[in-house]
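Quick question, first post here. What does this chain look like in 3D?
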Amino acid sequence: MKAVITGATGAVGMALIAELIKNDIEVLVLARPGSARNERLKLGEKVKVVGCDLKDLKDYKVSDGEKYDWFFHFGWIGTTGQARNDMHLQNKNVEYTLDAVNLAQRFGCSVFMGAGSQAEYGRVEGKLSDKTPTNPEMGYGIAKLCAGRMSRIMCEAVGMRHIWVRILSVYGPYDNEVSMVISTLRKMIAGETPEFTAGEQIWDYMYSEDAAKAIVALAERGHDGDIYCLGSGKPAMLKEYIIKMRDAANPACELGLGKRPYAQNQVMYLCADTEKLTADTGFVPSVSFDEGIAKTVAWVRADIAKNAE
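> Answer (accepted):
Ran it through. C-alpha cells below.
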C-alpha cells in the first residue's frame, strides 16, 4: 500500500504518517518548498518528501509506473486569524482541493480523503453529525463546505471513493503554535499566567494519535461519499481541560480564567457524534485527555530544549 499526503507537518499529518508507517504503508509527502517544518519529515525510508506547493498540484508530473492507493488532502492556506475571512484566499483552497482530486486520479488512487472542519456548521447546539445542517459564518467554513461538495462530485465522476472528515479539536505534538493547547502549555511551562475566558464552553478534544487511527480506518472502511465528524464524542467544560493542562505542565502556574471576554459569536458547544464513525469502521478512541496531554507536554518540553541548544 502507498499513500499521498498534503499538509503533513501539523498534528494530524505527522500522526497520520506515523500510523501509516506502523501499518507498513509507504508515504509520499507533497510539502511546501522552503518550509522550516519540513525538517520534521525526515522519518526514514518509507517516507518520500517532494517539494510541491498547493498551487503547483495541478502541474505535478506523475512518472510512468508511479502508482498510489490513498490520497489524503489536508493542505490548506489561511487557517488562522483574519485570513479565515479572506474570501479570495479561501476560494483558492477550493481550487487546490479540486487540483488534488485530479492529481489523485493521475496517481491511480482508489480513495480521496479531504479534511473538513466544524466551521462548516457554524454555531450549533447539540452533537455534530453528517445530518447536522450546515450554516458556515466565515469564509474558511464556507470554502471547506464547498471543497467537500465539489470534490465529492468530481470523485464520483471518475469512480474514486470520496470521504470527507470534519475535524473538530485535535491536539498533540506538532500542533500549530497559536493553537490554544500548544500556546497555553508553553506559557505554563515558562511560568507565565495564561488568560482565558471563564472556560464554560463545552468542548471535544481528541488526541492526534487517535485521529490518525480513525483516518486510516476510514480510508479502509469508510463509505463512499459520506461525511464523518472526527472527535472523541466525550465533551467536557473547557476550564476542566485547562486545569488538567496546568496540572501536567506546571502545577504551580496561576490560571487567568475569566480574564478575557467571550468572543462575538462564540461557539459554546462543540462535540462530535461518533456513532457513524464507529459503526462503519469499528474505531473507538483510546487515549484519554490526561494521557494525551502528558505526551503533548513532554513533546513541548523537548521542543523547547531543542530550540535552546
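DSSP finds eight helices and eleven strands in the chain.
The mean pLDDT is 96.
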